[in-house]
Amino acid sequence: MNRATSASLAIAVLAGCVMAQSETITVEYDAPSLDRWNYPFNGSPGTRLSASTFGAIELDGFDDHDAQFVVGFETLADIADGLDASEYQVLSARVIITNSNGDEFRYDPTYDTHDTYLFLDDSLDTDDGRPVHLWAIGYQEGFDQTNWGEYSAFGGIAEVDPTQGSRYAYAAYFPFEGSEPVNISNNLKEEFDATPMAIAHTDAVLPGEFVPVDTDFSFDVDLCQPGIRNYLAEGLSLGEVRFAITSLHAANGGDGGGTGDVTYPFWYTKENPIASLFGFAPRLELTVRVGNPGDFNSDGEFNFFDVSEFLTAFNAGDISADLNGDCTLNFFDVSAFLSAYSAG
Which of 168, 277, 304, 313 could form a disulfide with 318 if both were Cys (CB 3.0 to 4.6 A apart)? Predict the structure, then answer.
């Protein structure tokens, strides 16, 4: 933004003091309120000590992302719920999970396109290992976040017997801003690539190396992915943010490929006593501005300091100044700030 625009903005805003209109909140949750191994043959949903993620590669009748791990974090004790989604601006979000099995899968921090999973004997994948993905969650058959949980039924009528396409809650992404969530559970069969919220990273090993037990993996949510900010904001309005974790590590044998030689990760759940003792349950670190962003510094007053802090963030390219959520800092963010400030 040029000097003239900065001056115009400063002149356009009238200094004054009013009641608090925004609050920037940073919270850390050391365990989820909900975690579930979302797998069709899981006879004990919500109570397992670990949850694996793997794929049923080239296996009709089963979802490609066969074993998914759903985690949710209740936020209403720390962040006001029930507001319009526009009242929540997520500034950062990180999910952390820990594996409970060691030296059985290799670390891969890069996205593998769908064609690298097909024809496993002649794979196009050029590096060792498979990535672990973080997704939004979509629902079908009348279910949504308010009525599907840890102990709900897995799914209904399969598109292909025995279980393909039947799950009520599924890992999803948003192909463009404002779109409905798209189910990625069978992106290999349907031959499309989907962009996750994040890919798991760790500093414990190098790419291609086997992962030792009790390794932390972090997902730093890419807030510039289409639909992600609004998805998180809608969750905060409901009082809980949810994520799906998947990986397409190939599994061998049994229904859905879930038995035989283990070459895929297992993750601690909140029910695992070791996780409770050593802090290995899924965790969430979240920073969010709640309320009117015109009170940019969240001090409860609308004055020159908000203008100054907005301009500083804007000129520095800070995501906190991206008020219209398009991940581009331009006049529209200035306009959004002015409108929010005036509304205060």
Answer: 313
